[in-house]
Amino acid sequence: MKATWEKIDKNVVSIDVEVEAEKVTVALDQAFKKVVQKVNVPGFRKGKVPRGIFESRFGIESLYQDAIDILLPDAYSEAVKANDLQPVDRPEIDVEQFAKGQTFKFKAKVIVRPEVQLGEYKGLEVPAVEVAVGEEEINAELERLQQRHAELSVIDEGAAQNGDITVIDFDGYVDGVQFEGGQSEGYSLEIGSGSFIPGFEDQIVGMQVGDFKDVEVTFPEAYHAENLAGKAAVFKVKLHEIKRKSLPALDDEFAKDVSEFDTLEEYKQDLAEKLKASKEKEAEQARENAIVTKASDAAEVEIPEPMIVTEVDFMLRDFENRLRMQGMNLDLYYQFSGQNESVLREQMRSDAEKRVRNNLVLTAIAKAEGIEATEADVNEELENLAKAYNRPAEELRTIFTQNGNIESLREDLELRKTIKLLLDNSKTVAAEAAQA
After folding, report:
1. How far apart are CA 205 and CA 211, in angstroms?
2. 121 conformational bin, left if phi > 0, alpha if psi -120 to 50, beta if neither
3. Which residues of the chain form CATH 3.10.50.40?
4. φ and ψ of 240, to 5 deg
5. pTM reported for the whole predicted model
6. How far apart are CA 330 and CA 320, in angstroms?
7. CA-CA distance, 341 to 353, in Å (whole number)?
8. What is the CATH code for 151-246?
9. Closest by Cα among 148, 96, 416 to 259
10. What percent of the chain has pLDDT over 90?
């Protein structure tokens, strides 16, 4: 096989590929074996039609498309690999020649990974970060723990308040017509959670058990269901039950219940240490983000649109997976937030473009500095993951390899080593000086 390429536009190349006639013959044989299983010819059982009779009846040309489909993927992949190209999108294929006894010629036009012109990436200034834990932060953590360990009690008398968990039936109408998805019975809604359409929860405040009420709201203009977007709606609501949280007292008994410490003071000291460790980790992450952003801003690169779209796709899948872990899905999220996929994608686009740009720049720096993830690095990372997930390292290696993710792991390690290089060669300055 022969394959040559030329650059025809920024980040776009055209690849000319020629496949030997012998391979065309083999592909035609394979295509015949596939197609003959599907044709009916009087006097012959399906799959038993002789090649000569098949060609005289249907023509050799009837096998061409199947033969092309057999040859093309491997030929394209081989051409890309042979010329060390890195496509970021599907190619546009133009078949120039295909016939029995002849070479197979085609052109592939494809967008490739862009070239990066690096700027300064050593000696960059990053702000110093001072880590301290204040009393208010410790108190906020204690309050969060109080909320987690709160007891719910049913309120028989009195009105619903902010923070209460209410059990309601609701039935939604737009222009007096009931709409799909606007009904539920026995729904648990925490007042003040912001999980419903703006204005809905506020109107539940003040209702008592057994009350009926028409809750009037307006769907957001960007609501995912176009037939409801911007529409005024009335929800007929019945309140069945009110549950109110009873917070435990913050004392030594509370500390014993939620930790291994005997006194609240000991527990607060432990919380302070953990909060400090967490903030130190966040500070280090902030320094990494700052140095990567500076190196990225100093570089010149034009990002192809398909790379941004692919990253948004990844971010959307990741967001959906995190929603599932919380017992939700995208449809419910769209309903509660009043957004749709188009709006969510647009919100993610800026971060996606930044991620792609940073990745391209870090990869270029790694190449310029000869940074590679060794087999020892991979083994060490697998050992760390094995400890974290309590599974054998070799089992994790097998899983990574079978899923085709071992190279992604290696690339991630290389990017981490590159960031470390940037930090090791940076200058730490006061936050005010870095901003200036």
Report:
1. 12
2. alpha
3. 151-246
4. -95, -40
5. 0.70
6. 6
7. 18
8. 3.10.50.40
9. 148
10. 69
